[in-house]
Write a structure and sequence with these properties.
- There is one protein chain.
- The protein is α/β, with parallel strands linked by helices and about 325 residues long.
- It contains 15 helices and 14 strands.
- Helix 13 runs parallel beside helix 14.
- Bound molecules: ligand FO1.
Length: about 325
Amino acid sequence: AHLESYGRLRDVRVTVLCGGIGGARFLLGLRTLGHDVTAVANTGDDLTVLGLRISPDVDSIVYTLGGGISTERGWGREGETFRVRDELTAYAESVAAASALVPSWFGLGDLDLATHLIRSRWLADGVALSTATRWLCERWRTGVTVIPATDDSVETHVHLNDATTVHFQEWWVRFRAQVPATHFEVRGAAAATPAPGVLEAIAEADVVLFAPSNPVVSIGVILEVPAIADAVRSTSAPVVGLSPIIGGAAVRGMADACLSAIGVSTSAEAVARHYGCRRDGGLIDGWLVDDVDEAAVGVLREAGISCRAVPLLMHDVDATAAMARAALDLALGGARD
Ligand code: FO1
C-alpha cells in the first residue's frame, strides 16, 4: 500500500548517508526495491594498523551487500580464521618492539586482511579511497554505489574524562564505549572535501535518507564535512531519517554513550530534534520512528518534521525493505500527512 504513492515514479534515485553495520543492513533491504541507490559511507572509524589502512564502515557495507559479512558479528568475514592475528599476538607477547605495533583488542581476520592489503597498496600508489572502494564493489557486486564521504583522512578521536584522547576504534572496541566520553573530535573533517560523486548524489537525488545509524559517530561524522552538510541543507530532494533509537534504547551498538556525550537524550524524538527541521536550518524534513515511539509523532509534526510510526526492527530483509519503503513513502508520498 505504501508503494502506491511513489510507485509510479520510475528510476528513483536514493542517496543514503550511513555508518557500518546498521547502515549496511538497511541498504540490503533498500536494494530489494530496485531503485538507483548511492550510499555515502562514514570514514571516521578508519584507522591504520601495521601500515594497513582499514575502513570498517565501508567494509561492513561492501561485505554485507556482497554476501560475505559475518552475520553473527556484523563485521568482518563469514567463515573467518584468525591465524595471522594469533601469530602477531605471539610476536607482541615476546618481542618488545612488536607489542606497541599490534593492538591486542582489534581482531583482523585472515580473509579480511586481503581487503586491507589490496586497498593499502592502491592508496600507497596514489589511488583515492573512493576509487579503491569502487574496485572493492566490483569484486563484491554490491549493486549499490558506495562512496566514502571523503577521500581525505578523517578520523574520530574520543576525549575522555582524564583529558586523554583515544582513537574511536579503541574507545569502541577496547573500552566498549564504557569509559565516559566528553567530546568527539573529528580530525581532518573541517578541511575535508567530499569524495567525487558525493555532492552530486545529494543534489541530484529524488530522496536523501539517513540510515538508522549512529547519529553522532556515523551520520554526525559524515555531516562534519562542511560541504556535505551544506549539500543536505540545500538539496531539492526531501531528506528523511530512520530512528536508530527505539523505545529509549539503541537498537545496535552503543549510541546512548555517544548521545550522552553530546548532551542529547536517548530517544527517537531527541535525535530528530538534534538533526533539526530543514525548514528552520536543520537537516531533515521527515523522520520515521518505531511503533513504540508513536507518542513522538504528534510533537515532531508540530515542530515541522513530517513523522510516522512504523516497525523499525531490521529482523530480516523483508522487514528492512518495508522500512525503506515507508521512508520513501514519507519522503515522496507525504500527501497523507
Ligand atoms: N569490532 C569489534 O568489536 N572487535 C574487533 O576486533 C573488530 C575488528 C574489526 C576489524 C575490521 C573491521 O572492518 C571492523 C572491525 N570491528 C571490530 C568492527 C568495528 O570496530 C565497529 O563495529 C565499527 O567501526 C562501528 O561501526
